[in-house]
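Dear colleague,

As promised, here are the two records you asked about, laid out in our usual form so they can be pasted straight into your sheet.

NAME FIELD: protein one
SEQUENCE, THEN STRUCTURE:
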Amino acid sequence: MSQKLLCVGCGEMGTAILSQVPNGHFEITVCKPTPPSSELKALIHRHITDHANAQDSYDVVFLGIKPQQFDEVSTWLPEIVSDNCLIVSIMAGVPLHKLKARLNSENPIVRAMPNLAIATGDSLTGLFTTDTLSQNDKNNVAALFGKDARQLWLKDENAIDAYTALHGSGLAYYFLTIESLAAAGHHLGFTEDEAQKIAKQTCKDAAQLLLANPKLNAMAMRQKVTSKGGTTEAALDVLLGQLPPLYNEAVKTAYKRAQELKAS
């Protein structure tokens, strides 16, 4: 029997998550004031524009709204959260104690931090809860975010902010790296399309090599592909003094911003 899932808000990230839900696991209702995209419409069973049209009870309520929308949603959501309902939030900066207080809820709540790569079915989602989850709750979390290998349960809630800085925002760091490499290739005479193709494939090659050699970390793989006195070493002489400190500062800044959002 399908579990009843209510998605409160469902933008690009919510759509990406729903695209990987196993067929038949959920009966999905989306509550959002605007019409669903054609992609989202194909994934759900029901769209409602207002909570007044919600049903009596759901097995899971998924909060896919922006953090600044939570105060308004919290005025009516407790009315439709049944006793055994699991609440899942992907809102950055809204901690568990605020979720529980505003929803006046004893229900189990899970905070999750995916990124858009979840749409590929091969991503990693950071998760945190202070509640004991039933087996049914665990099955529903797995249906949303993938089974054990696709879940990383974090040791404390502060780790959600660190995970946001490294993983949630991390795709953009790699996209910028590819963008920069493609621009460098274009300056060397490749067309923009050729340079993009080369840079994308090189990133894919690096990831595949790391995944194919789980006993070697990135530093070991970098050393493995670097010949003394060669072209790679010459390039790394430029990068090593500048890139690691820049990444460290960028991730620290993202982490600080996540904590600022939590405090606001």
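NAME FIELD: protein two
SEQUENCE, THEN STRUCTURE:
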Amino acid sequence: MHDIRAIRENPAAFDAGLARRGLAAQSSEVLALDQARRAAISQAEAAKAAQNAASKQVGAAKARGDEAEFERLRALVAEKKAEMAALEEDARTGDAKLTAILETLPNLPLDEVPDGADEAGNVETHRWGTPRVFDFTPVEHYEIKGIAQDMDFATAAKLSGARFVVLRGAVARVHRALAQFMLDLHVEEHGLREVNSPVLVRDEAMYGTGQLPKFAEDSYRTTNGWWLIPTSEVTLTNFAAGDILDGATLPLRFCAHTL
């Protein structure tokens, strides 16, 4: 999510970056929401200060028998308390609106990224090896005769709906073997630490890896608010979320097989 401070400091650069991605300027709307939110916070703090000051004077007015002043101060305390509550609600509403905009705007491109309207604008910067030329027409893996018989989409659709598959026989064994090969390679040869992590996570974890809000409609969520992770990248990345790490413990290198 974009840092509001960076937008405050250089709104023109922010809009220029969005323009390079083919988007309209957003800084005016963002900064207006930010200003309204900050004003509500400031006014709420002023109301609280006035409430506190009046509260201190209530006892003194009562002690000297000044009933008129006592009642005036009591009414002022109640008034400032209600004013503060309303302003705090305005600030919360403004913060929610500001966050909703900032978290949906795409990242700004780096200066060295070439401009382009579509993939035709891509620039090849490096090539390794030679693309293979087939003497036959390639097909998708699930269309290969020896594999297709053990990939059961019909049963999966009956069990779970679209976008699922049941693997059987040799294909299921190859799937398991590939996962084991990947884990063994990274642990034994590259020094990573194997992890078996939860497959259900909170909102914060999905936001932390960019799954939300962009991919919310393509993700699965339980009725109590947990999200089913797309890959273990979500959990592994969030291991360090919100923590200050001791430099001596770095780097932290993990690997996992997403079940």
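A couple of things worth noting about protein two: Residues 4-102 form a domain with the Helix Hairpins fold (CATH 1.10.287). The first strand starts at residue 151 and ends at 152.

Best,
R.
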